[in-house]
Automatic annotation (TrEMBL):
Pfam families: MbnB_TglH_ChrH. This is Uncharacterized protein (UPF0276 family). InterPro entries: MbnB/TglH/ChrH (IPR007801), Xyl_isomerase-like_sf (IPR036237).
Length: 276
């Protein structure tokens, strides 16, 4: 990626906007696309980051790219407007669906790994790309179940979508860990089968074990196995930018600082909590 994407960032949220804005070495951040006002001014903290040259990426959670129905034009228009308001060089969304038959799930739901599902995602990504003037990166999600009668492995499914839609990959390292742990597979082996050469940037987060199922909650500190996976990833491809996701149960600033420093150390990157 170009230099603004190098290093370690943290997702901008109103609850921690002061902390994010105060990071002296921050070069890029991410905001939930659906929260970006497109008719009025940006939130002051977000506007300040953009104005000081920090790259801000709108990250969608509501387009439902994996839905059988075409993406809704109004949502695509808001997505495109958010990118324009932030002067973003990139947008991102999930390989998932959030609604079907007019019913909102309220969660990112996994897709059946079938060629029909690939076709649906690719068609919707093309519709979005027709309206958005910058590249799009697609994020495979963490799933606590798999649909039956799969036709493709996870890596094959992701690779075919990325290649056919000519999109980039937003690789969530924590999701790779979560899926491998829940399926009883090796996360490093998954990395070796993914199109890491198409990575735009990466997500990093912590999760919680509930009755033997690991949930990608974004409410806990990044665990050591995910840090180890970051080290494995950086040995396999060009240095990917890393974005810490925190959503709810925000810890004190000292704990967030320590987490960012640990992520930077795992990748061998400059610490965003320090100048220089």
């Amino acid at each position: 990626m170009t230099s603004p994407f190098y290093g370690v960032g943290i997702g901008w949220r109103p609850e921690i906007s002061g902390f994010v804005g105060g990071l002296p070495g921050l070069r890029f951040t991410e905001v939930i696309a659906e929260t970006v006002p497109v008719t009025g001014p940006l939130p002051p903290g977000l506007a300040a980051l953009r104005d000081r040259g920090v790259t801000v990426i709108p990250h969608g959670v509501r387009l439902s790219l994996g839905g059988a129905a075409p993406v809704e034009p109004e949502r695509v228009a808001q997505f495109a407007a958010a990118a324009e308001a932030l002067d973003a060089p990139l947008v991102s969304e999930h390989i998932a669906f959030v609604r079907a038959g007019g019913v909102e799930a309220g969660h990112l739901l996994p897709l059946p790994r079938t060629r029909e599902a690939v076709d649906a995602v690719v068609a919707n990504v093309r519709r979005v790309r027709a309206a958005v003037s910058v590249p799009i990166a697609l994020e495979p999600i963490a799933a606590i179940f798999d649909w039956p009668d799969e036709e493709l492995t996870e890596a094959q499914f992701i690779t075919e979508i990325i290649e056919r839609s000519d999109a980039m990959l937003l690789l969530d390292v924590a999701n790779v860990y979560a899926n491998a742990r829940n399926r009883g597979t090796d996360p490093v082996a998954v990395l070796d089968r993914l199109p890491v050469e198409r990575i735009a940037y990466c997500h990093v987060a912590g999760g919680d074990d509930v009755d033997g199922i690991y949930h990608d909650t974004h409410t806990a500190v990044t665990p050591q196995p995910v840090l180890d996976l970051i080290t494995e990833l950086t040995a396999r491809c060009r240095p990917p930018a890393l974005m810490l996701e925190r959503d709810g149960h925000y810890p004190p600033a000292a704990e967030l600082t320590a987490e960012l420093s640990a992520i930077a150390a795992a990748a061998g990157y400059p610490d965003p909590t320090r100048r220089g």
